[in-house]
Amino acid sequence: MKTELIAGLFNWAVLLSGYADPGAQPAVEFREHAFFVEHACHGRECRVMGWYNDQDVVYLDTKLEDLESTFARSLLVHEFVHYLQHHSGELEAYSCAQQISREREAYSIQRQYMAEVHGEAYFHMMRPALCRDEGGDSPAGPN
User: Highest taxon of the source (predicted)?
Assistant: First the structure.
């Protein structure tokens, strides 16, 4: 059942994003919170519960492992969007502006998914980490 659910959520990400299906899905692995602190947040405490590593693996917090909540499902759609972005080659630069574009698009699609499938477009958006580009700029806008 979980395999079918994950495949269905991946199809939602493809449908809503407009990106081409690359012909394969990323692996989905569940990890404890400490994993996200170490790998996604570079050792700093954070509230990250999902992360795509640009190496074909989506990680979700073990607290979401049952995928029963609408939030857990929408977060998986969000991370699948990052996988699709990566494989499209359109948002591959890792400048601060590109990181913000990637996140804005993924959150927008996550909201669309919530509205279309669950009838609710609101969810708690995590406060984005500030990034710095080579010029030292640090935008404060949401990503």
Answer: Bacteria
Neighbours of 41 (CB within 10 A): 14
CA distances, 133 to each of 79, 107, 129, 136 (Å): 23, 21, 13, 5
Q: What is the pTM of this model?
A: 0.85
Identify whether the C-beta of residue 59 lies closer than 8 Å to the C-beta of residue 36.
yes
Contacts of 57 (CB under 8 A, 6+ apart): 26, 27, 28, 29
How does pLDDT run along the chain (143 residues), one tens digit per residue? 599 999 999 999 999 999 999 999 999 999 999 999 999 999 999 999 999 988 999 999 999 999 999 999 999 999 999 999 999 987 666 778 888 888 999 999 999 999 998 787 665 555 455 565 544 443 333 33
- CA 11, CA 69: separation in Å to the nearest integer? 18
